[in-house]
Amino acid sequence: MRTRIALALLLVLAPCAAAQSPPVARAVPKIDTLHGEVRQDDYFWLRDKKNPEVMAYLEAENGYTAAGMKHTEALQEQLYREILGRIKETDLTVPYRRDGFWYYNRTEQGKSYPIFCRKPGTLDAPEEVILDQNALAEGKKFHALGGFDVSPDARLLLYLEDTTAFREYTLYVKDLGTGRLTDSIAGVWNGTAWADDNRTFFYMTADSAKRGNTVWRHVIGAPRAQDVKVFQEDNVLNDVSVFRSRSGKYVFMPADGFTSSEWRVIPTASPAAEPRVIAPRRPSVEYSVEHGDGFFLLYTNDGARNFRITRLAESDLGSATARWTDWLPHRDSVFVEGVDAFKGYVVVSERSGGLRRLRVTDLANSRSHYVTFPEVAYGVFPANNPEFDTRTFRFSYSSLVTPSSVYDYDLRDRTRLLKKRQEIPSGYDGNRYEVRRLMAPARDGIQVPVSVLLQRGTPLDGTRPLLLYAYGSYGTTIEPTFNSAVLSLVDRGFIYAIAHIRGGQEMGRQWYDDGKMMRKMNTFRDYIDVAEDLVRRRYTSPERLVAQGGSAGGLLMGAVVNMRPDLLRAVVADVPFVDVINTMLDASLPLTAQEWEQWGNPHAAEQYAYMRQYSPYDNIEAKAYPWMLVTTSFNDSQVMYWEPAKWVARLRSRKTDAHPLYFKINLAGGHGGSSGRYDRMRETAFRYAFMLDAVGLAPRPAPTP
């Protein structure tokens, strides 16, 4: 005990030595055997969040990082001011109409959080502040809202609040007439839906592994003990959610896994009714549902890898002879990403050639047309469209050079009206920059899309630093959208590139399937092949190439830096999922059980052997690694802090180079870091200062006497 206390004190009291001697976590071997392989984990003890020695070690790592980056403090401040200068601090979103009110939120200079407002009837009416998150967050190190749901009669507001960063939510009901809180329910999960009576609502709870699994019905003013359990999903592979349909006629309760779905529905006019299953679960069949005017649309991969849309008359729901008919058939070259149904129109989000387009169908005549976009690389997203009976569809659009733009599209007249474009107060000239769309050959012959932003006229001579960002998991598509912060790098000579690697869905469902489970290695190889192609085209060189990814993208960073450390000058791994085997063995942790269908289950010998070849923590070797910055949050509930902590500790014990390895721990943040916008901007400035330092574009530290 005395030894442990002494070590803890040494770690806490000796940050000044950090610049010369990084913290060293003690090795406490934990031995296990799995599928005949002896596994030794020297840093398992770092999981003990309540151990003061753990906190002392993390604080020492923060001290070491601060000391090592001290010479960049002026640069960090300059970068922060630049990033802040591109943000309109006092601003407001484009109002949207719902149930007779115009809703929007606004920000004020110096305040970290939005203020939620509305106006009755017209935009000329007096403003009503319905929730000021700044007031709620006062005195708290972290504050996040997990839900925001106004009752159909517009008198009551449901909102969920988390002050722990660990996704521990409390639900509140606010009377918008009096400002008084009428109900509160602790320990809930994200997801709410109102019934038509304006006094009954549905909410969720989660199991011990933070898997949303139960839907409850609550009546305003009734004690929680009287709440009715409406549905519980016991299969740990499936997550439950709850929401009200746009039509307002149903409450939907999806129970979705990574490979199958089963949705239930309750009429909002009859909240005490038993939920009905829309389509029974079948292996490898996924679906989601939209309610239209007298029918349901089911978006599914049943017999359709790239998904198709089927239709069922509302009157046939629950009928033994119910028959879903094709509404939008499957097409091999077009990936259906989602569907929005309105009273007279349906808007389908599709992807072709790696880019999204919007397909509009007029239900009166079944004619369809496309909303298309001119740039070579861009992102378009359906925005807030809560009204069912409308012919206006709102979407947001941006590209690497076009600031975020909100449009209202007239579904009948086929015209679009720009409602707002992101302002850059410090000034912005898009003509100074150029966007390119490249196709990089992967080693198996697949062409991987790459979106590139660079200053116009940049010479391709291999001397430019390049930041290569990627994610490549869960079927998440990384769109090439506007990022005002990254201009601080580009204006200093960086090239910015996004590798749209397998594991996402940029090129359709097969793109995702080829980057998960027993084909996950494609994700890492694609990134390496893209990097090599950029070097071959002389966009950069290995001495100038910086890699960045976060969460599952942090897994990408960890795998790539083990496989090809010579290809990179520096790596930034944010909240990285790097202890793959140990995490996927522990079903008590959030996300583990569901994600056996994403990464594999190491309890199965064949899957263990495959995962073992890429798990970053398990493949660290005694060799040279590039510059590395690793970040985490102590209260992250999605990638626990100990994963990057253990990874950094093992890297320190084995790497043979003298390159910086910094580990920065946010002791108050969550998976996304800090909750306040100004703190998040400072975190970005810190990362950029590290990148600039790594490629020699930051002031050098003064020599040690």
What would you note in describing this structure?
- By secondary structure, the protein is of the alpha+beta class.
- Helix content is 18%, strand content 33%.
- The chain contains twelve helices and 39 strands.
- Strand 12 (200-206) and strand 13 (212-219) form a beta hairpin.
- Helix 1 runs parallel beside helix 2, helix 3 (73-85) crosses helix 12 (677-694) and helix 7 packs across helix 8.
- The chain starts with a helix and ends in an 11-residue tail after the last helix.
Number of alpha- plus pi-helical segments: 12
| Extended strand count | 39
What's the shape? globular
Radius of gyration over C-alpha positions, nearest whole angstrom: 26 Å
Q: Provide mean pLDDT, rounded.
A: 95
Strand adjacency order, main sheet: 32-33-35-34-36-37-38-39
Topology:
Layout: H1 2-13, E1 30-34, E2 37-41, H2 52-68, H3 73-85, E3 91-92, E4 96-98, E5 101-107, E6 115-120, E7 128-132, H4 133-137, E8 144-150, E9 156-162, E10 169-175, E11 181-194, E12 200-206, E13 212-219, E14 228-232, E15 239-240, E16 243-244, E17 250-256, E18 261-267, E19 276-277, E20 287-291, E21 295-300, E22 308-313, E23 325-328, E24 335-341, E25 345-352, E26 355-362, E27 367-371, E28 379-382, E29 392-398, E30 405-410, E31 415-421, E32 433-441, E33 447-455, E34 466-469, H5 487-490, E35 495-499, H6 509-513, H7 521-536, E36 545-550, H8 552-563, E37 570-574, H9 580-585, H10 605-612, E38 627-633, H11 642-654, E39 661-666, H12 677-694
Parallel strand pairs: 34-35, 34-36, 36-37, 37-38, 38-39
Antiparallel strand pairs: 1-2, 3-5, 4-5, 5-6, 6-7, 8-9, 9-10, 10-11, 11-12, 12-13, 13-14, 15-17, 16-17, 17-18, 18-19, 20-21, 21-22, 22-23, 24-25, 25-26, 26-27, 28-29, 29-30, 30-31, 32-33, 33-35
Helix pairs in contact: 1-2, 3-12, 7-8
